[in-house]
Amino acid sequence: LKGRVDSLEVTLEKKPEGLKFAGEIKPTGISGRVAGFGFTDVNGFIVFSDQEVRLYYTSGKLDGQPLAVRGKILRPLQEPELKLQVTASGLDVSAWQGKAPFSGMLSLDAELQGTWRNLRAGGKLWLEAGRLGAYAVSLEDTGFALSQTGSDWNLQVLNGSGSLAGETLGQLNGLVHSRAGVLTLQALAFRLGGGQLAASGSLGSDQL
């Protein structure tokens, strides 16, 4: 860790089962790494102990992407379990090159639950100035549910709306999953203009 801390209070207590601690911290511009991710510009108010970390109005950047987080992390010294509310605006999807089949500026409001290896997320997302293969795409107030186990994940899109290739997009529902780095569109259905479309198949940065 490095950066500035406005205030820090810590209480230590030695017990038969080991050292116990609790305290609070107000970071202003802290940076470091956690679970393999780099974080910078962390500001807010955090209450912590050996059993739980609570985040209040905390903001920062995760791998260069701006986020605001509140909630708690259980068992921080073992396998942490997340119970967090995450808000993000203007995430650059191109920063995840090779990990996402689309580009654009993504905003979301989501709940995260579980461990880093078994993570679940759900909420609403918005996409501006997006590209999916050769097509321009945008999304508005679109529901999503994400589950991850190890490096594999499933992403479900629910009742989305927006535009695709200049046409009005509505009633968007789909399921994409990644297994061993291979992206597959398992199911996709939506209204485009005056028609109804469905699709399935492989996804990649240069194919749809």
Helices and strands in order, then pairings?
Layout: E1 2-15, E2 18-34, E3 37-49, E4 52-62, E5 65-74, E6 81-92, E7 102-114, E8 118-132, E9 135-149, E10 152-164, E11 167-179, E12 182-192, E13 195-202
Antiparallel strand pairs: 1-2, 2-3, 3-4, 4-5, 5-6, 6-7, 7-8, 8-9, 9-10, 10-11, 11-12, 12-13
Please provide a written account of the structure:
It is elongated and about 70 Å long. The mean pLDDT is 88. A hairpin with a 2-residue loop joins β11 and β12. The protein has no helices and 13 strands. Helix content is 0%, strand content 79%. It has a 13-stranded antiparallel beta sheet with strand order 1-2-3-4-5-6-7-8-9-10-11-12-13, with no helix packed on it. With 208 residues, the protein is mainly beta.
Please summarize what this structure is.
The chain is an all-beta fold. The protein is built from no helices and 13 strands.
Keywords:
elongated, 13 strands, 208 residues
Q: How far apart are the termini?
A: 42 Å
Q: Level of helix content?
A: under 10%
Overall, the morphology is elongated
Instruction: Report the structural category.
Output: mainly beta
Relative strand content? over 45%
Please give the number of β-strands: 13
Instruction: Specify the number of helices.
Output: 0
Cα gyration radius (Å): 20 Å
Average pLDDT reading? 88
SSE pattern: EEEEEEEEEEEEE
Query: Major sheet: size, sense and barrel closure?
Result: 13 strands, antiparallel
Low-confidence stretches: none
Q: In which order are the strands of the major sheet placed?
A: 1-2-3-4-5-6-7-8-9-10-11-12-13
